[in-house]
Amino acid sequence: MSKFKTEFTWNEIDWGNSYNIVRRSQRRIFKASKLGDKRTVRQLQQRLIRSKHAKLIAVQQVTTLNKGKKTAGVDGFVPTTPKMKLTLANNLHLNGKASPIKRVWIPKPGKIEKRPLGIPTIQDRAKQALAKLALEPEWEAKFEPNSYGFRPGRSSHDAIEAIFLNLRTKTDKLVYDADIRKCFDRIDHKALLAKLDTFPLLEIQITSWLQAGIMDEYSNIPRSTMGTPQGGIISPLLANIALHGLEEHLKNYVSSRDFPKPYPDAGRGSKTKRAALGVIRYADDFVLIHRNPEIMEKVILETKDWLANVGLEISAEKSKLRKASESFTFLGFQITLVTKHGQSRVKITPSKENVRRLIDKTRNIIQNNKSASSYGLIYLLRPILIGWGNYFRYCECKETFKKIDNVIYNQIRAWVFRRATRKGRESVKQKYFPENRVYTFQNRLYKANWILNGTRASREGKPQTTHLPKLAWISSENYAKINNTASVYDGNHIYWAKRNPKYSTLSTRVCNLLKRQNGICTACKKKFEIGDSMEVDHIKPRSQGGLDQYKNLQLLHRHCHINKTSIDLKSSPENLAGAG
Q1: CA-CA distance, 420 to 110, in Å (whole number)?
Q2: Which range in 87-101, 179-193, 350-364 is most confidently predicted, on average pLDDT?
Q3: Could you write out the three-class secondary structure of 428-479?
Q4: Which residue has the higher pLDDT, 213 or 192?
Q5: Residue 62: which of 114, 129, 118 has the closest Cα?
Q6: In which element (H, E) is residue 280 found?
């Protein structure tokens, strides 16, 4: 039953229950797809797109959670009230129709060139979100292990770590850093739909989205026969589906041909040949890694032929074959193989281009806010610096962070001292850069001078103080790459609770305790496994005055919890008094 009760309101929805029901259906789709049970996959998908819970989640995503929730399509409609959102969810269904797409042009980061962004209507966005809920778990069971872009639970850091694992040998390997020319605009529709191979209603609906007309300012562009409009919720998933199979095809290609050995001491088996080729893809950017120049040239030609079958080609000006020691950039990171004193190691740092963009961005913000308060300037700069630093903390970033800190300090110092026209520089310095202050950042204390401070009055009239932290205060960390076949739909709650609680169905308390205990039961010292029954225990029982705080909590197997509770009861003051 997909209709909602008339007395039902948007603000009364139990979102936790809706998400649990949808995730349960998605795990069933994933499991059936993994087993190759196509019939069950189709049945479960059709049931899911009719589910009222899936419709509510789809509408919530496009009207409440997404950044573009207030951006209208060609119809100008934006649901803002709870009643409008509930009406949209009540009327939501896949009907094989699509409204024209509104096209706007946005600049590429750090370039004058612009790229097109398609903005579907809110209703089409909700329909795409609904279709994605059904399609994504099916394809997550099929996607290749080294595909990382636009997939839940995977990130660019996984791709960088995969490159690191491929290059960390004593040999200088060849790297082909490839970029697909206008990938989203040129995917062949027939090839994509043939690969998608879904049930008729969803195929008709996706076809209508792919071929929807485009409204570009005052002109109406006719329907296209290729490409997926950038900006649609389902577009990244469709692009991944179109590019699915490249890694497996290339590995089969190098293992089934009578190629020379990948390297002199290598074996001749197919397993060795497959392992010698590295294929790491993030959306439409990918890297090929191999030691043998002859094999690499043939692999590149085979890649171009494979891409041509889906209507794509490699951009010659953006792609290059080089040795790892010559350095290359990928996803904002500079990667090179450094040899020193006969020892080789992979060095990964933030790219010079990304550093330049950050410095230009901070300079523009400071110059455009000359009359702002220091509190207001910190409010603008702080999230940019911390966000940038958190992205690049999984590499050798310390030296880069220190250099950026010095540049930004000079920018801020000039901003501060231009205010010292009437007051002395010393008094202005003490106001904005107070001495001998201790700052707390990421649970660590720092005593430093020349840190920009800002103060403003709260609504109650009390002073609120903040400061601009240094990038160098963000600690460099190692990154653990995701397991090859791991998926957010695989039901491995323990793995995802430790790696990314966002994708775990366990409670926040259990996720935090699993992470703190590194997945180990504190009673029997054994790891929690899939299917284990886990319970939260108070180390000092509440009946004995124990507090309900994390420092007094531990996660135990159910049987370990029963044993501990039995011991606690025997040692309770009441039992001891009775025994006396």
Answers
A1: 34
A2: 350-364
A3: HHHHHCCCCEEEEECCEEEEECCCCEEEEECCCCCEEEEECCCHHHCCCCCC
A4: 192
A5: 129
A6: strand 278-282
